[in-house]
Amino acid sequence: MKRPLYHTAIVAPFLALLLPLTSVAAPLQTAASPRGTLLRGGAEIFPFGIYHTSWIGERYGDERTQDLLAIHDNSLGILQTPLDPTSRQSDFTLLDDAARRDMGVMAELYLPSLGTLIDHMKNHPAIISWQIGDDFNVTTSKNYCPPELLKERHKLALAHDPNHVTYASGGSAPVARYRSFKDYQGCVNMIGIQCYPVDNKPDFPDELMLELCFQLLKSRVSEVEGSGIVPIANLQSFSWSKKGVFPTPSESRNMLYGALAAGVKGVLYYTYYDGTPIKGHVTLNQQAPALWDEIGRQAKEISQLAPFLLKGTRRALPSNAEHVHVFLWEKDAKKILVVFNTERNASTDLHTVIPDSAGQTLAALFADRPTGLELKGGILRGRIRPEEVHVYSVSESAQPHPLEPQPPNNNSSKSRH
Question: What is the DSSP secondary-structure string of 113-145?
């Protein structure tokens, strides 16, 4: 991710507002590949970003611009936010600021004016997508869209702008009121799969919430596999109540790698701002600074892993423990092994066969992250603690294969969205 040229905490926000607009190229076309990945300018990207529900409390203008800077400085390359430049000139300013920083914007639109709003913004280089539905598959929601209605919106958006994809976010909790994504094939280009388990009972009992999140994401991704729809994980970065019960850093990382193992091709956190004052603050970086720091670390890890996530082959491997999951990604003779434990309280002694790994060893891929598993004689063994995620390169020596450099992650709701 490109970093801003300024770095002084006091003056940086004001300098950012004074920077002259850069001359930007024509808008980059976005499309969904047949393999269910997002293309921008013809290149596959793994979008990694966050929501900003500005309509709550009318957080637009300079305040949202400052939030954009904070999101950029935390290495996130995508902002999902409401846009209506027919009512607010500052929305074009936001798009300009995003383009200047190589960020992409997924536009949430006032649906009765869908075509008009698309026409106003479709030539802006920051635009990634048009949101045409939220909670669209939740049959008890006022936002519920039967497939025919979502397809109608999808066709309308493409008629006004065939050069950008459509996006809709749907529910995935383990309840019957959530309609299968299979019913929506051909109705939208990208689907956000909501998974907000922390402090969300009874749908997600505490002890099982990480395991349920992984299993639900895996099930929902399977519903769109082979359809060309891009599955995007909507992961929790908010508190359901004013008590301030946010995901812990370890819970957040576990949910992220569970989503990757499930096969998602992008991640949007919900949310940076939702208007709920917690601890006297309304933005995530101040409400839950440890979680915000963790998400920034994740962004850097995703940047390194993206070539494997987009172009590699992913397969689940056997595990001797029900809630310890082992996944292998392979690309160009390079291998990445991910092991994560969804147990909340219990450590697990792992002893499992890794196929075709005789003579190979592990090397931790990221500094200051959990480690300690060993691959010897084709057997993966060691202790993994509750909620831990281990990420290794697998090679003939203890030295990790260098990963391909990844361009900046720019091309890259809760049910109460």
Answer: GHHHHHHHHTT-TTEEEEEEEESTTBTTSTT--
